[in-house]
Specification:
- With about 500 residues, the chain is an alpha+beta fold.
- About 55% of the residues lie in helices and about 10% in strands.
- It contains 21 helices and 11 strands.
- The strands form 4 sheets. A 5-stranded mixed sheet has the order 6-5-9-11-10. The chain has a two-stranded antiparallel ribbon with strand order 1-2. A two-stranded antiparallel ribbon has the order 3-4.
- The longest helix is centred in the middle third of the chain and has 23 residues.
- The N and C termini lie far apart (about 75 Å).
C-alpha cells in the first residue's frame, strides 16, 4: 500500500475518533461565547480576528448545538494540517519521511488538544503549513498561481490570529538570504502573495479604528518590552509536557544540526527560518505571560520537517531506532496527558428553562420583564444560548448582559449595554436649563428590574450590582449538573452605578 493511502486511512480513522470524542460533550461556556460572537457577523471581535467565532458558529449551524458542533471543523483542520505536512516533507525529502512526520504530528499532545477544542491554534497551524507548502511549490515551479495560493493561506491564518503576520515577510527573508532565489524578489509573481494578507491586515485595522483600537491598547511600549525571564524554565517544562519530552529533545537536536547547514542547504533554510520566527513569537509570549498554545503549535508544525535531516547515526546510536522510541513514547504520553471530555454542562437547557421561569414569575402585567445580567461573558453567552426564548431585552441588544463597567472586557462591552445613555435631540432651551446643552442623554433601563445570574455569594456581590440597584435579594440557587451552584438575585429599581 502506498504512503498516501496509508495516510488517508490513518487520517480518516483519527478524524472519526476526534468527532466521536466530542460527540456527546455539552457546549462549554467558552464555546458559547465564541458561538454568540460568530452569530453576529463581524470581521473581528473583542478578543481578536473573527475566524474562530465564525467557524464555531458555522459548526453549530451545521452539526447542532453542543460540543460536537462547536468543534466540528477542528478535526478536519487537523487532517488538513497533516496532509500539508505530508506533501511538504515529501516534496523536500521523500514520501516515507512525509508519512512518518505526519503521523508523529498526530501523536503530539498539543496537536490533539488543539484538534479537540475551539481555538485559533489549529487553524493557524494548518494555514501556516499550507503557506509553506504553496510557497515551496511556487519556488520550485516559479509559479505566480502557487504564490497566490501561499498568500491566500497566509491571509486565512491572519483571519484567526495576528501571530501569522510574519509568514510572508519571513519567506521574503528566505529569498533575500538565498543566492539561488534572491532574483525571485524582483518578479511580480512573488508580490502576488502579499495581496491577501495585506488586505486582511487593512480590514483588521479598519475594524480596530472603529472600535478604539481595542486589540492594541492592552499595553504600552514599555510593557511590550518588559520580559520576565524567570518564566523561561516553567515554559520549557510546559513545552515538554505539550510535546512529550523526547520529541522536544529531538526537535532541539534537529535544530542544532541544521544551523551549520543553513548556508549550504536552501531546503533547510526554507524550513528553519519560518520555524525560528514562530519559535521567537512563542518565546516572546511566554516571557510576557501570554498564552503560548497557538504560537507554540505553529512553531512545532513548521519545525517538524527539520527532523528528517537528522544524521543516520549519532553518538553510536541509530537515528531510526531512536525515532521509533520517540514515536512510541509520544503515543503513550499523549494517551496519558490528553484531558478527558466533560460530561456535564454548567449551564444547559434545564438551567435556561429554570431562569426563564423565574423571569416570568417576576414580570408584572403592566411592566417589562426583568432584564438578565450575568457575572461574566462566558456565563452570559451560555445562558443566552440556553434560554428557551433568546429574545433580546431591546432591539439590537444581546439576550443577556454582562456587568456594567467603564472598561471593555469582552465582546459584550462592544454591543449595546444596559448602562448606556442614548443621546436625544433637545427640543429647545427653556428658561432655567443650561443654554450650552444641545443634547440630553436618556437610559431606557432606569427603574427596571433585573435578574443577576452569578456564582458569587451575597457577601461577594460586586458594587456594579449593590450600588446600582435599590434592593438586591437572593431569589434562588440552582445546582448545575457539573455540581457548581448558580445563584439568581432579584435586583430592583436600576439607577446606574454612581461615579
Amino acid at each position: 500500500m502506498s504512503q498516501g493511502r496509508i495516510l488517508a486511512f490513518v487520517l480518516a480513522a483519527l478524524t472519526g475518533l476526534r468527532w466521536w470524542w466530542n460527540f456527546a460533550r455539552p457546549l462549554s461556556a467558552e464555546e458559547s461565547y465564541l458561538a454568540l460572537c460568530g452569530f453576529v457577523p463581524s470581521f473581528a471581535y473583542f478578543d481578536g480576528p473573527g475566524g474562530t467565532p465564525w467557524l464555531v458558529a458555522l459548526g453549530i449551524s451545521a452539526a447542532g448545538t453542543g460540543g460536537f458542533g462547536a468543534v466540528f471543523f477542528w478535526p478536519v483542520l487537523a487532517a488538513l494540517a497533516s496532509v500539508a505536512t505530508y506533501f511538504l516533507v515529501s516534496a523536500l525529502i521523500g514520501k516515507r519521511e512525509g508519512l512518518a512526520l505526519a503521523v508523529l504530528l498526530n501523536l503530539l499532545p498539543v496537536f490533539n488538544q488543539a484538534s479537540l477544542h475551539a481555538s485559533c491554534a489549529m487553524p493557524l497551524a494548518a494555514a501556516s503549513l499550507g503557506t509553506a507548502l504553496c510557497a515551496w511549490h511556487a519556488l520550485e515551479k516559479n509559479s505566480a498561481a502557487w504564490w497566490a495560493c501561499a498568500g491566500t493561506c497566509a491571509g486565512v491564518a491572519l483571519l484567526f490570529s495576528y501571530t501569522a503576520w510574519f509568514l510572508v515577510p519571513v519567506i521574503a527573508l528566505v529569498l533575500l538570504v538565498s543566492h539561488r532565489w534572491r532574483r525571485r524578489l524582483a518578479l511580480p509573481g512573488f508580490w502576488v502573495a502579499w495581496v491577501p494578507p495585506v488586505a486582511v491586515c487593512l480590514l483588521l485595522l479598519q475594524w480596530n479604528s472603529r472600535h478604539g483600537w481595542i486589540h492594541f491598547i492592552g499595553g504600552t511600549w514599555r510593557t511590550s518590552l518588559t520580559l520576565d525571564f524567570a518564566k523561561l524554565g516553567p515554559s520549557l517544562v510546559f513545552a515538554a509536557t505539550a510535546l512529550s519530552p523526547l520529541v522536544l529533545v529531538m526537535l532541539g537536536t534537529a535544530a542544532f544540526f541544521s544551523v551549520p547547514r543553513l548556508g549550504v542547504s536552501p531546503k533547510i533554510k526554507f524550513v528553519f527560518l519560518p520555524a525560528a520566527a514562530a519559535l521567537l513569537a512563542a518565546v516572546y509570549a511566554a516571557l510576557r505571560g501570554l498564552p503560548t498554545e497557538a504560537a507554540g503549535l505553529m512553531a512545532v508544525s513548521l519545525a517538524l520537517p527539520l527532523t528528517a535531516w537528522l544524521p543516520v547515526r549519532f553518538s553510536g546510536f541509530s537515528t531510526r531506532t531512536a525515532a521509533s522510541v520517540v514515536f512510541v513514547t509520544a503515543a503513550f504520553w499523549c494517551a496519558l496527558t490528553l484531558p478527558r471530555p466533560q460530561t456535564a454542562a454548567f449551564i444547559d437547557a434545564q438551567v435556561g428553562r429554570t431562569i426563564d421561569g423565574l423571569r416570568a414569575g417576576q414580570t408584572e402585567p403592566s411592566d417589562a420583564e426583568p432584564m438578565l445580567i450575568a457575572e461574566n461573558a462566558p456565563i452570559a453567552a451560555a445562558l443566552a444560548l440556553a434560554l428557551p426564548d433568546g429574545a433580546a431585552a431591546s432591539p439590537g441588544h444581546p439576550p443577556v448582559y454582562t456587568l456594567e463597567s467603564a472598561a471593555a472586557r469582552s465582546q459584550f462591552d462592544l454591543w449595546p449595554r444596559y448602562d448606556q445613555f442614548v443621546e436625544a435631540e433637545s427640543l429647545g432651551s427653556p428658561a432655567g436649563l443650561d443654554p450650552f446643552t444641545e443634547q440630553d442623554g436618556a437610559n431606557q433601563f432606569i427603574g427596571r428590574t433585573a435578574l443577576y445570574i452569578t456564582t458569587q455569594t451575597a457577601d461577594d456581590l460586586p458594587q456594579a450590582i449593590t450600588a446600582a440597584f435599590t434592593a438586591v435579594q437572593l431569589l434562588q440557587e440552582i445546582t448545575a449538573k457539573d455540581g457548581r451552584i448558580l445563584r439568581v438575585y432579584l435586583c430592583s429599581d436600576y439607577q446606574t452605578m454612581p461615579l
